[in-house]
């Protein structure tokens, strides 16, 4: 599993992987390499006696910045079948998935995984916070919740496709225009600013917490020339 | 009016009109995330605008203290300094709560303490680190 990465991981313990621009650039474009590298790092860490604080910290700062949403889902599957210390690792993955991708991350988690880990305290807590209206502990609402998540996911997929058919600068401009009369639109502006100008998600800059889209808006080449009457509404 | 001007105006109103819906350590919401982004963009304007300063002091200090920002970004450090100036008692109380939470149930106190050195008194910092070592051991 990613044997070619073992010398790199062993030498650097992974700390500099996401912070080295040349490596980060290659990884951003290479899902297969990300998978191999991450699997190697996890295997390397899981050989330790316990999943300690230093391992979690390493995960947060050394490995997660290079991952993308699909990587996290893939990781979850792997965690179930391969690793020791899986609950702690799964908990970290859950938190990271949520922090990066919001509550809808839960909707994209395979049901068997959710069922297997919902009793892990940290995961249970996150689910309670963000899906409390659907109270996972009550049998009678599970179907409602599942139906809701399915329809929401479908709706968001459709909306996302619709949104992404609109050029990013146009979508931002429309949201900013609505923002002057409805401050709640800031929630959507923030989401849009997490993209790099071409609907490609990018994490926050580690140096200054500024969403990458903030660096782009106002640039003349990204100015919205067209106007649409409505931006897609979200549930 | 530029896009950045529109965005900053919207961010300012968002902070004034809304709240993070977070009342406990370790929690976050889409509102708290959006609020932190708004505060980060407005970091140079918060203290000079009375209405914004009041809203920030009354509603958003917890959001800043609890925000996970990787490696204690310059923005988070600046926001923490503003929190300290606007309401030192609340800020230090929340820091204490956040560090204890992270040290015992979260991802580790070291994450919570990143960046706080600049805004804490020596005595408070010693107390926080003492709490950290107790919790970690």
Provide a concise account of the structure shown.
The complex is a heterodimer of chains A (235) and B (137). Chain A is mainly α and 235 residues long. Chain A has helices at 6-12, 21-28, 31-46, 53-63, 69-82, 86-101, 104-107, 111-117, 121-131, 139-165, 168-179, 186-193.
In whole angstroms, the N-to-C terminal distance of chain A is 42 Å
Q: Give, in order, the helices and strands of chain B.
A: HHHHHHH
Mean pLDDT of chain B: 79
Radius of gyration of chain A: 20 Å
Distance between the termini of chain B: 55 Å
What do the pLDDT scores of chain A average to?
62
Alpha plus pi helix count of chain B: 7
The total tally of domains of chain B equals: 1
Radius of gyration of chain B over all CA atoms, rounded: 15 Å
Q: Which sheet architecture does the biggest sheet of chain B show?
A: none
Shape of chain A: globular
Strand content of chain A: under 5%
Largest sheet of chain A: none
Low-confidence stretches of chain A: 132-136, 222-235
Report helical residue fraction of chain A: 55-70%
Tell me the series of helices and strands of chain A, N- to C-terminal.
Answer: HHHHHHHHHHHH
How many helices of chain A does DSSP assign? Answer: 12
How would you name the oligomeric state of the polypeptide chains in this document?
heterodimer
List the topology elements.
The complex is a heterodimer of chains A (235) and B (137).
Chain A: H1 6-12, H2 21-28, H3 31-46, H4 53-63, H5 69-82, H6 86-101, H7 104-107, H8 111-117, H9 121-131, H10 139-165, H11 168-179, H12 186-193
Helix pairs in contact in A: 3-5, 5-6, 11-12
Chain B: H1 3-17, H2 30-41, H3 50-66, H4 74-86, H5 88-104, H6 109-113, H7 122-136
